[in-house]
Every structure is written in C-alpha cells, then in structure tokens.
Amino acid sequence: MKTLDTASVRLDFPILSELVNGKPVVFLDSAASSQKPAQVLQAMQRVYRATYANVHRGVYTFSERGTELYDQARAKIAQFIGAPRPETIVFTRNATEALNLVAYSYGRAFLRPGDEIVITELEHHANFVPWMVLAKERGLALKFIPLTAEGMLDLSRLDELITPKTRLVSFAQVSNVLGTIIDPAPIIARARSVGATIVVDGSQAVPHMPVNVQDMDCDFYAFSGHKMLGPTGIGVLYGKLHLLEAMPPFLTGGDMITSVTFERATWNDPPLKFEAGTPSFVEAIGLGAAVDYLSALGMDAVRAHERAIVEYALERMSEVPGTRIFGPTDPAIRGGVLTFALNGIHPHDLATLLDREGIAIRAGHHCAQPLHIRLGVNATARASFYVYTETREIDALVEGIYKAKKTLRK
Ligand code: C6P
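A: This is the predicted complex of the input protein with C6P.
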C-alpha cells in the first residue's frame, strides 16, 4: 500500500507556511474544515479567469464549458463514493442541507404519525435537529441507539429499538467528537429487515477513508466538500435513484423545472429536481479537483496515515496528567480526532493559550450537545488531523498543553 509523504503533501498547501502569532501554524482543526491544496484553488481560479458563465443556461462556449466541467465533477464524485451513476449525486450547500433535504422532502412525503425514527446518541446537530423537528411536526417517535462507556454504539438492544414501526434509521459513520468509526453493516442489516429507509451522515468518513455507498447499501448518504480539501458552499447528497424520483422537490424555482405555465409546473429529473437556482458550480468543480487530489494520494493511504497519527496522539496525550480522553482507545476503530478534557482547565482557555503558540484546536460542544450531556461535560477540547498532519505537530500540542498548565498553575 502507498504511504503518505507528508513533507511533499504539505508543499501543496500554501496556508501551512503561514505564521500565527509569530509561530509556524500548527493546524489541528481539520474536522471542522480542512485546508485546501493549490490544485483546488487553481482549478477554481481557472474557471473564474478563463471560462466563467452560468451553467445550464447559455448556448455559448463559456456556459457550455462550465456545464461540462460541472457534469464532470458530479461524475468524479459519484465514482469516488462508489455511486452507480452521476444522477444519484445531488449537489447541496453542505451536509446539513443534504440531511435537511431528506428530512423535508422524503420525511414529509413518506412518514406518517406513529412512525418511528431511530438515530444515535452521538449525532452532530445536523443529523439530529432535522429529525427532531420532523418528529414533533408529524407526531413521530424519535429513538436513540445508546453509547457504551467506551464511546461505541451499544448494539445489544438493536432489535428492540429498530422494529417494524421504524421507518427511518440515520447515523454518522464516524463521530466528529469521539472519533468512533461505526460499522454500518449490523445497523443497516437490521433496518433493512424491517423495511426502514437508511440515511448515513458521512461528513467525517468520506474525507478520511474509502467509502462505497453501494457496498454499504444505504439509501441516502450526506457529506460536505469543505472537510475534504474542497471549498465551502458545496455538499453532496447521494440517494438511490428510485427514491430521488419518488420524492417531491425541496426548494423550487429555476433549473429544477421542465415547464411552468400560469397554472402549474413540472419537475426536472433528479438530480436537477433538487438543485433549484444557480448552483455553486465553481465550488463543485473545486470539489472535483479535491477528489482527484485525494484519489491520487489513495484513500487507503489517507486512512493509514491518520490511524498512525491518532495512535501517536493517544499515546502522547495519555502521558499528560489530569487528561480525560473521550472515545475508543483502539486506533483501528478511531478516526483522526482526539477529544479531551484537562482537569481544572476550561477548553476555551486552553484553545486561547494554544493559539498564542500558533496551535489551532477546537473547543466547545462541537455541535453535539446531546452527546456532551451523555458524556457529562459541557465542553471539550478537540484536536483533529488530516493528510498534512505530522507527529511533530502532536508534540507541539503536548508541549503547548504543558505550557498552558504552567500558566494557569494547574
Ligand atoms: N462538523 C465539526 O467541527 P456542515 O456544517 O453542514 O458542513 O457539516 C455538518 C456536520 C454533519 N455531521 C458531522 C458528523 C459533522 O462533523 C459535521 C460538521 C464540524 O465537527 C463543524 S460543527
């Protein structure tokens, strides 16, 4: 298997040579949003500089070229996640919008009072609040697969939780807080056996490991471009074609219709049925370039690199007195995030002190408040890793933590 040469990877990321507070930046917040390689920036700049015009509208060269590049980006993304055809890829603004699209369109059309939705206790708000709102509005029950003390899903009560009343099951493939990598197979098998629709939040999976939506056999799969080296403003919803065909539109307006009279309108076929208005096509082209970049690195190599980094980080952080580390300690089932709490130091204070050293980590509830209620803490600190992360940056983090402890006399 290929391994990552981080020294040469880092040369592709201009931002990594910036200084923060006079120190070389140590960027440990890629789970929130990743940095972008020059290849992505250049692909987008090429469109703006050489062939920019709105897509799907003009019969002139710039517009036709833009449309072609947009279509190519869709095909690349389909291939990257093992989707059967480009029409199953709907471009959205981000994962949040993709999940809302399913809740608003599929949920409101096909779920009935008394039906049940099953999610898990570790969800990000993006895969929690849309189901909670839908459940309250439609008189549905919302149930949760609980966590074990180690931060895994407790599947021992799966048959009790997912029953013939369950119409939809949704879960994150990788937790943005605990790093837990969920094995989708047993949950999907149980959901299939009762005929429930399966939605997977792949926001923290697609950027970091090989994903194949057909092998997984989910019905919908959502993720964001900005966490996988792509630009902001572009996300993806994969959906099985017969479901996308059966669903009503989410947003309406230009581009998503075939004809409009004073009395009625008819809808375009998927995916355009779900892409009302001028799409973020330059961003989609940028995401296509990000997918090319990741494919050239090899997703097995990306995963192996992060596994090694997280293993090193778990080791180094467990040496720091007064540290509580959340999530599985086995790097084989852990993505590239390390969430922790330090005795007597608020995560925001720690993040502020680390910033003085040029180190960026995230502090807070990471948009997973119900999970933090389960963990019994208000806030945590989180370092997260990607293709450009080096072990010396983990060393810098640990040194920074010791310095913060000294400053705060802890
Ligand atoms: N998590 C984090 O720092 P958007 O904001 O739509 O691009 O992604 C939402 C989302 C959905 N699911 C999971 C598992 C996520 O981690 C995220 C985004 C970021 O953890 C920002 S809150």
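The pocket of C6P is lined by residues 31-32, 94-96, 124, 126-127, 172, 176, 201, 203-204, 224, 362, 366-367 (CB under 6 Å). The domain at 6-32+298-407 is CATH 3.90.1150.10 (Aspartate Aminotransferase, domain 1).
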